[in-house]
């Protein structure tokens, strides 16, 4: 996915929307031992991000900038954190945010989970079916995916739905009796006393 999907790929410095912002370059100190050679698009995006972060600007353009920064580096937890602050300030549509997260997950399966949980918690029980269906798809590809099981347990604990879990585990065990993940889930919810 292109990091600049919302703006046609134009550099921020050429966009009228950003003319009022003075980019804030990264400060590596006076004598960096091994300076990192960033791509120009990444450097520019992060320079603008640092500027809006420092100004605590919570606007639609700040939200778009976090999208760009996340596409360039989905492992930047500061960007994810600031995105949550902006989403709250704008009272943004969190169903749309889940769609964005799914596009991120399709190309990068890590680094967004904490943010996803934050979104799902705010959507509440309305998000449960969507999350469980997503996890079911992942487990249909890899029934022993630790991260999917972990997220499934979190969804069930946070949003409910344990009442159907034994049937789901039974189905998985019928498909593969050696699925230790399904056995673990089954035994966690079944009273053997």
TrEMBL record:
The keyword Repeat applies. The keyword Ribosomal protein does not apply. Keywords: Magnesium, Prenyltransferase, Repeat, Transferase. Its EC number is 2.5.1.58, 2.5.1.59. One of its GO terms (cellular component) is CAAX-protein geranylgeranyltransferase complex. Signal peptide: none annotated. Residues 1-32 are annotated as: Disordered. GO terms for molecular function: CAAX-protein geranylgeranyltransferase activity; protein farnesyltransferase activity. Its cofactor is Mg(2+). It comes from the Eukaryota. It is an enzyme of class 2 (transferase). It holds the Pfam family PPTA. Belongs to the protein prenyltransferase subunit alpha family. This is Protein farnesyltransferase/geranylgeranyltransferase type-1 subunit alpha. It comes from Gossypium arboreum. The lineage of its organism: Eukaryota, Viridiplantae, Streptophyta, Embryophyta, Tracheophyta.
């Amino acid at each position: 996915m292109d990091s600049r999907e919302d703006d046609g790929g134009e550099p921020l410095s050429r966009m009228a929307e950003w003319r009022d912002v003075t980019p804030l370059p990264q400060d590596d100190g006076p004598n960096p031992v091994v300076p990192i050679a960033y791509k120009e698009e990444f450097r520019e995006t992060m320079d603008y991000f640092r500027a809006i972060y420092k100004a605590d600007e919570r606007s639609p353009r700040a939200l778009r900038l976090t999208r760009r920064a996340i596409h360039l580096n989905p492992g930047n937890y500061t960007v994810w954190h600031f995105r949550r602050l902006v989403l709250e300030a704008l009272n943004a549509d969190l169903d749309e945010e889940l769609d964005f997260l799914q596009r991120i997950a399709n190309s990068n399966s890590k680094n967004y989970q904490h943010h996803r949980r934050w979104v799902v918690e705010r959507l509440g029980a309305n998000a449960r079916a969507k999350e469980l269906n997503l996890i079911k798809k992942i487990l249909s590809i890899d029934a022993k995916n630790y991260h999917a099981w972990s997220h499934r347990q979190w969804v069930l604990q946070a949003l409910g739905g344990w009442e159907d879990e034994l049937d789901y585990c039974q189905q998985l065990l019928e498909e593969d009796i050696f699925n230790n993940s399904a056995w673990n889930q089954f035994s966690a919810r079944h009273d053997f006393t």
